[in-house]
Design goal:
489 residues; 18 strands; two-stranded parallel ribbon; 14 helices; alpha/beta
């Protein structure tokens, strides 16, 4: 029999080996498929062997609900509810029977496939929904079609608890808001609507309503780029209002602003960033009897921030305790002549004042001090050595007509300087010692961590300083006075 020249095997044996190899190779795809079919059962067996597999379904569902709350995800593929439903067959069955973990629904820009949203709406059954909706720019001059999403969402709008809408197209935003115009929303707690600058294409002249069927639990509204009067929900239960960067073409008349604010009988926290009306007459009065905190901020693109003086002169708030003025300069106070018109008589309960990024000269700082004389807590946040030193110098002015000697803020007992540096240590020490000598000591001094470190120039003063005052690390606690959308989610 002929043999192979290299290995010496008969040719027939060689052919048998090759044939056997071919048979085995041909069976590999079938074996792979069998392995793939068996693997889920193997995974289930492994998972069932763990301690958690013995948990009753009710306990496992509670674990899922807690995890869904504690582990939010920005990327869709990292969503908690998706992850747990892929662990095992049992976990998936429990997840699908746990409506609360499917209650956060997000629509991303240019999303045309709505299968996943429909699944979430179905799986969440009747529980309250947190809706996060993004509307993008048009493509090739055509706006994205939001109507199919509106139709899908419409039967479920009444379950909405938190509504967040970010839009780059005003027309589609209007279509979405019209979808919820007459809805009753008994669970609704917060509304956050943002319209980008490039998405604003025309004026909205006729005030309209959303959730006209009622929203008795609504407590928080944030509008960015959209005028207050454009789409109004029920207002009588709202406690927090945040107005931000209203487009000049949508400016609310001050009478309309007054009417809306007066309708908010429960309003306790108000934030205004940028201009909100086209003109501020000097005789307008807006009485907000329950307002406790007020934040007014100028935007960087404003030549003159008229809303600073406009709101301070217009608002009368006997319960106001916290005032924050941000990003303002001298020109914003040029027309302020009478300090009494700013707040001494209108804000009798005011005790806490925050000046953040406020670059005011001595005359305007002294005017603020005279306007709000009962301040006990002062926060001055500005990365400017000269301004900080000037503030400390101003606060050492002597009142020759008063027994207290302290001219400005004689009741001040807490001073926070979150932007202080080593360069102001001598001025800080001098101010604290002077206040102590007048009989009006500063009781708490809040400074940034780096200033209180062992390597800081203030460290050598620390023992002397602590004779007069309790020194603490500054932490920003503004969120307790000015709640945000993130706090409500």
């Amino acid at each position: 029999m002929p043999t192979h020249p290299h290995i010496g095997l008969p040719f027939s044996s060689q052919e048998e080996i090759q044939s056997a190899q071919s048979n085995h190779i041909g069976r590999i795809p079938a074996l792979d498929a069998l392995s793939a079919n068996i693997q889920p059962e193997v995974d289930d067996a492994n998972n069932n062997a763990t301690a958690i597999s013995s948990l009753p379904e009710e306990i496992l569902a509670i674990v899922f609900e807690i995890g869904h709350t504690d582990f939010p995800a920005e990327r869709l593929k990292d969503l908690f509810e998706i992850s747990v439903s892929h662990v095992s067959r049992r976990w998936r069955e429990v997840a699908l029977r746990t409506p609360r973990i499917w209650s956060k629904i997000r629509r991303v820009k240019h999303q045309n496939r709505l299968d996943s949203i429909a699944a979430y709406l179905q799986r969440s059954k009747v529980v309250a929904l947190d809706l996060r909706i993004e509307i993008g720019h048009g493509v090739n001059g055509l706006h994205e079609d939001i109507i199919p999403f509106c139709r899908l969402l419409s039967p479920h709008c009444g379950r909405c608890r938190h509504l967040s809408v970010t839009s780059s197209a005003q027309r589609n935003l209007i279509k979405l808001l019209e979808c919820i115009s007459s809805v009753a929303a008994p669970f609704l707690q917060s509304i956050d609507i943002s319209l980008s600058l490039e998405g604003r294409v025309f004026d909205i002249t006729n005030p309209r309503q959303i959730f006209a069927g009622g929203a008795p639990s609504l407590n928080s509204i944030r509008l960015r780029g959209l005028a207050l009067h454009c789409y109004l929900p029920p207002l009588d239960s709202v406690t927090n209002l945040h107005l931000d960067e209203v487009d000049y073409r949508m400016f609310t008349k001050v009478d309309e602003l007054r009417k809306v604010l007066l309708a908010m009988t429960a309003l306790t926290h108000l934030v205004v960033e940028g201009e909100v009306v086209d003109d501020w007459p000097s005789d307008i009065i807006i009485e907000l009897p329950r307002l406790q905190s007020l934040l007014i901020r100028a935007n960087n693109d404003q030549d003159i921030a008229d809303q600073i003086l406009g709101l301070l002169k217009a608002i009368s708030a006997p319960a106001l305790e916290v005032l924050s003025l941000q990003n303002i300069c001298d020109i914003d106070f040029e027309l302020a002549i009478n300090p009494d018109a700013l707040g001494q008589t209108k804000f009798p309960s005011l005790r806490s004042l925050t000046l953040r990024d406020v670059g005011l000269s001595r005359p305007h700082m002294s005017m603020i001090a005279r306007a709000f004389p009962s301040i006990t807590h002062l926060t001055h946040s500005l990365h400017d050595i000269e301004k900080i030193v000037n503030l400390l110098t101003l606060l050492q002015d002597v009142d020759v007509h008063s027994r207290s000697r302290v001219k400005y803020w004689p009741h001040l007992h807490t001073l926070a300087l979150p932007c202080a540096s080593d360069d102001e240590t001598a001025s800080i020490h001098e101010f604290v010692a002077w206040r102590h000598s007048t009989g009006h000591p500063i009781q708490r001094l809040l400074l940034p961590l780096h200033v209180l470190s062992d390597t800081s120039a203030l460290h050598e003063w620390m023992d002397d300083l602590r004779v007069y005052v309790q020194v603490e690390v500054y932490t920003d606690d503004s969120s307790q006075y000015f709640p945000t959308w993130a706090d409500n989610k």
